């Protein structure tokens, strides 16, 4: 499984397996700090980001709602404005070891990173000799139409984290490191009792192998259909402010709370959820058919007609 993931994500890279996305991100931060022998330890993350619910990852997460009431949190996390390179330049200091970023902020309301931003971050990290960690826990495993979301930006990260769909429903996450970063972690520096257990790894290997170029093409074309259909809906109903995303990761921002629409869709048999109170997030399974997408969009149209 490690070979298969490294081949797709980072040829020559090394993979650490753990049980959850938060643990994969913890691994990434530990590796980055160890790479600089603990002398540099600050990590720049982004406002509105989500990186997990362990104490350190609450520190990285740039949304107060997840953090309030759980302090004190570990130090060393600075939050910069997303999609705004100058804000990152403002935060860097002599102790910065890494930047961690999602290429689409998922929990944060399905906000895609701009191309210049991610490419600029890569250049910024290179120029300042710090590591670029891409959190692909939500965007990986084909969700955006490529194996990992960062591929759309034509950059190579130093560390990538994956989870969620990786285990095909079983708990497995991974931290993939390029050789220079991986070499900082020596046996015994980090570990997990159940990390890399054979059952979850077998499920993950089967899942990863299912992500073929044909499947990615399907994700892309079904995603385009979903996005175009929702854009059509937004022309009809003023309460829809924005449609955005990539592949089968699509957000519909409303000018009102979205929870009633989520309930309405569920009653009709469609599962979506609501983030940031007003963003309906669609993350359908890749086996979804165009007819299901059309049915869901018609159900949403009925809802908007009812509330006008
Ligand atoms: N990072 C991102 C981008 C996520 O979306 C999530 C979960 O929603 C996590 C990290 C945390 O993953 P887990 O819940 O498996 O710890």
Structural overview:
The chain is of the alpha/beta class and 308 residues long. 39% of the residues lie in helices and 19% in strands. It has 11 helices and 13 strands. The strands form 3 sheets. A 7-stranded mixed sheet has the order 1-9-8-7-4-2-3, sandwiched between helices. Strands 10-11-13-12 form a 4-stranded antiparallel sheet, covered by helices on one side. A two-stranded antiparallel sheet has the order 5-6. Helix 9 (213-236) packs parallel to helix 11. It starts with a helix and ends with a helix. Bound molecules: pyridoxal-5'-phosphate (PLP). Pyridoxal-5'-phosphate binds next to helix 2.
Furnish the topology, listing elements before pairings.
Elements: H1 2-9, E1 14-18, H2 21-35, E2 42-46, H3 55-60, H4 64-67, E3 77-80, H5 85-91, E4 96-101, E5 104-105, E6 111-112, H6 115-127, E7 131-135, E8 159-162, E9 173-177, H7 179-182, H8 198-210, H9 213-236, E10 240-246, E11 249-254, H10 259-267, E12 273-275, E13 279-282, H11 290-307
Parallel strand pairs: 2-3, 2-4, 4-7, 7-8
Antiparallel strand pairs: 1-9, 5-6, 8-9, 10-11, 11-13, 12-13
This protein binds pyridoxal-5'-phosphate.
Residues 20-22, 25, 50-52, 102, 106-107, 135, 137-138, 163 line the site of pyridoxal-5'-phosphate.
């Amino acid at each position: 499984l490690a070979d298969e993931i490294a081949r797709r994500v980072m040829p020559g890279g090394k993979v650490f397996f753990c049980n959850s996305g938060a643990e994969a991100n913890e691994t990434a931060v530990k590796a980055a700090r160890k790479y600089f022998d603990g002398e540099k330890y600050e990590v720049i993350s982004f406002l509105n980001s989500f990186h997990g619910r362990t104490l350190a990852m609450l520190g990285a997460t740039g949304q107060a709602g997840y953090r309030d009431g759980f302090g004190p949190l570990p130090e060393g996390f600075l939050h910069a404005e997303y999609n705004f390179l100058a804000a990152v330049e403002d935060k860097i200091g002599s102790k910065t070891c890494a930047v961690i970023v999602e290429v689409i902020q998922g929990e944060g309301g399905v906000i895609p990173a701009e191309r210049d931003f991610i490419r600029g971050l890569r250049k910024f990290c290179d120029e300042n000799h710090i590591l670029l960690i891409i959190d692909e826990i939500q965007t990986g495993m084909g969700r955006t139409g490529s194996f990992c979301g960062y591929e759309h930006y034509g950059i190579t990260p130093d560390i990538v984290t994956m989870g969620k769909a990786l285990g095909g429903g079983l708990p497995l996450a991974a931290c993939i490191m390029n050789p220079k970063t991986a070499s900082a972690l020596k046996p015994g520096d980090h570990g997990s009792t159940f990390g890399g257990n054979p059952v979850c790894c077998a499920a993950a290997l089967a899942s990863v192998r299912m992500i073929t170029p044909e499947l990615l093409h399907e994700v892309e074309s079904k995603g385009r259909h979903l996005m175009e259909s929702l854009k059509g809906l937004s022309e009809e109903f003023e309460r829809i402010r924005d449609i955005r995303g990539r592949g089968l990761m699509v957000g519909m921002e409303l000018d009102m709370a979205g929870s009633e629409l989520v309930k309405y869709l569920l009653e009709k048999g469609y599962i979506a959820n609501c983030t940031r109170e007003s963003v309906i997030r669609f993350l359908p399974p890749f086996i979804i058919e165009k007819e299901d997408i059309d049915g869901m969009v018609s159900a949403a149209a009925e809802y908007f007609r009812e509330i006008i």
